[in-house]
Design brief:
- The chain has about 160 residues and is mainly α.
- The chain has a domain of about 90 residues.
- The protein has four helices and no strands.
- The protein is rod-shaped.
- It starts with about 30 loop residues before the first helix and ends with a helix.
Length: about 160
Amino acid sequence: MQSRPRRPNIPSRSEGSNVNVTSAVGMEETVGHQRAKRNSLFAQTVIWISGLICSAFLLGTFAQACSNSQLVQQVQTAQQSLQQVSAKHTQLKRAVDYYNDPSVIESEARQQLEYVRPSEQAVVIVSTDDGGQQQTSTQKSRPQQQGYWQNWWHIFFED
């Protein structure tokens, strides 16, 4: 049988030093092993902090994307509103141009406000109940006249 070579039992520390012994193996920890543990703990801490920073940046990016999406929707809504207001403005501008025409102003004044020119005389026909009934009956029996002035002629000079 082959026997294994035994390690010499040489203490690495002096007898009076505080010795850390692992309970499972029964050997003391070396300085290199303690340094490796500290380096491993430092590496884990750096990895965790880096992960947290990356997560924060990722969440910030998602928040910015959501904010940008909402802003785009607001801009589209504002553009649609602007187009509607612009169309209404164009329509009102055309109406202003139409009503600034002197012939339109005169026509509206004559029809709606019953205005007359200074050289003209306004004629208002007021009829009593009997005359109004007779007049309407004669107008219905008479065929419709062709011209506007012919109607006035028949009102004043016929009957």
